[in-house]
Each structure stands twice: as C-alpha cells, then as structure tokens.
Amino acid sequence: MGKIRVKVLGTDQEQEQKKELKKRKEQKKMAKAPGLKGGERIAAVGPTEKEIEKMEAAQEPKETKEPKELKEKKSLTRNAPKHTRSKNYQAVAKLVDRTKIYSLSDALNLLDKLKRAKFDETVELHINTIEKGVTANITLPHGTGKKIRVAIADDKIIESVGKGKIDFEVLLADPSMMPKLARVAKFLGPRGLMPNPKSGTITTDPKTAAKKYENGQINIKTEGKAPIIHLYVGKLSFGKEKLEENVKTVFGAVRLEKIKNVTIKSTMSPGIKVKLG
To answer: What is the pLDDT of residue 33?
Structure first.
C-alpha cells in the first residue's frame, strides 16, 4: 500500500482559532526579556497569584479579641430588662409637679398624700451642698423614729471589724483607743464610721454619748466623693409639725448659705423639691 495521509479535521478557521488560543496561554506563562534575540523567551518572573494573595492577607489588620469579661458585660447590658415603675407609683408620681419647688409646708402636706406602703415610711432628706466637707452634730427635736445602732470601740469590736463584720451605724471611742483603731481604718474610713473629734465620736465619756445618739442625736456629713448629704428626719406618722421642726433643725445646722438644693421624700414616694427658707 502507498502512504496513507491523515486529514486534519476542522476548517482552516477552526485551526487558526486553536493556534491563537494556545499562543495566548503560552504568553501568560512566558515573558519577553529585553536584549534577547527574536524568538528567545524566559519564564515569567515575580510572585504567583497565590503568593500575592498570601502577602495581602498578611498585611490585613487582625481582628482584636475582646476580653471575656467585657463580652459578658456587654451581653448582660443588652439583655438587661428595662426598669419600669409600678402603676401604683406612676399614679402618685403624677401628683408631684417636677418643675415646681414647693415650700416646706406644702411639700410635707403633699408627702402625706403620696403614702403607698402599709408600714410607717421613713422620711428622707437629700441635701446638695455647695462644697464637700460639710459636717454637723445635732439632736433632732423629735428624733428620727429609728433606733440607731451605736457601738463603743474596744478590743472585741476592733477584732470583729478586722474580719469585715460591721453591725453598727455609729462608733464611739475613747482617745486611748485611737491607735488600735488605726489598724482597721481601711474598713471604717470608706463607710464614714471612723471616730473623729469633729463629729463628736471621740469622747472621754462614750457611754453618755451613746445615750444621746440613741435619743436622736445624729451626725451630718457630706459624702466622701460628692457634696451631698443623705439623712433621716423622722417617720410619716410624726405628722407635719414634728417633721417640719426636725427639717428646720437640719437646715440650721448645715446653714442655708451652704445649701444648693433640697429634696424630701418618703421610703416609697418620688422626691419633692423644697424651697430654702
């Protein structure tokens, strides 16, 4: 048999398209180098696409992780239920004009109408002063209506305080006990219970002083970090006249020129702004 020739299938146009496609693929893999003779080629240089992607990923800033405690705190804040007042509270709150400053007499009359609890509510006085460090020691004419827990410093009390146990509201001390009390000052100081001469809680006769406190004597003192005084001035059952006398006694001890504003309220009531003088 003679030689058999195999005919390439496809039109000339299809063959040209295949060659062109093959040429383009080769051009992507190869690049001309300047200075080489015609037809001579070298492999393309430089990083591959995968290497470029890795480099870009390395340059992107990494996401900083929040501490676990902060994440938990944010979660609690988002999920915390909003505090809403009871319908009973909202009803009596409408009786108070928030834009008005009442006279002491009118404020006490209104306070009696705001009573909601079945128990005898305590009357509270909140005084904003013009400065910190305001102190006074007074005996309310009609007492506070609340039994004040008074303690006299001794070795047993100091040992108990050192263990973090404090079950008194006023601590009295003889001057001779002060060096021992210094050891537990870190417990008493922040609570405003450290005896000092200005408040009259350092005395050579602590037993007599204790009886005075039990009969209604109180210490008035601004908070350590803010110029504000919180104190009790009686019970709603005292009636308007006795409460008014107690409040005026406080005003006289603090002195009106040192007072910025005053709010009076009972245990369960909204606050009422009170005029000075």
So the answer is: 47
- Which of 224, 254, 266 lies closest to 109 in space, CA to CA? 266
pLDDT at 145: 87
**Of 196, 218, 234, 230, nearest to 139 (Cα)?**
218
158 and 210 share one domain = yes
Same domain for 156 and 209: yes
| Residue of 200 and 250 predicted with greater confidence | 250
Query: What whole-number distance in Å separates Cα of residue 132 and Cα of residue 230?
Result: 13
Q: Which domain holds residue 254?
A: 94-146+216-277
- Give the Cα separation of 12 and 10 in Å (integer): 7
Query: Residue written as tokens 């398209």?
Result: 17
Overall domain count for the chain:
2
d(CA 276, CA 57): 69
Whether residue 113 is contained in a domain is answered as yes
Contact in structure between 226 and 131 (CB atoms under 8 Å): no
- Whether 42 has a pLDDT exceeding 80, the answer reads no
Same-domain status, 133 and 237: yes
* 109 and 211 housed in the same domain: no
Rounding to the nearest 10 degrees, give the CA dihedral for residues 231, 96, 240, 102. Answer: 80
Task: Report the CATH number at residue 101.
Answer: 3.30.190.20
Instruction: Estimate to the nearest angstrom the gap between the alpha carbon of 264 and the chain centroid.
Output: 24
Write down the pLDDT at residue 156. 94
Indicate if 127 and 238 belong to the same structural domain: yes
Q: State both tokens at 103.
A: 């006279």
Which amino acid, 216? G
Per the confidence metrics, is the pTM higher than 0.70?
Answer: no
- When pLDDT is cut at 50, 70 and 90, the band that residue 20 belongs to is confident
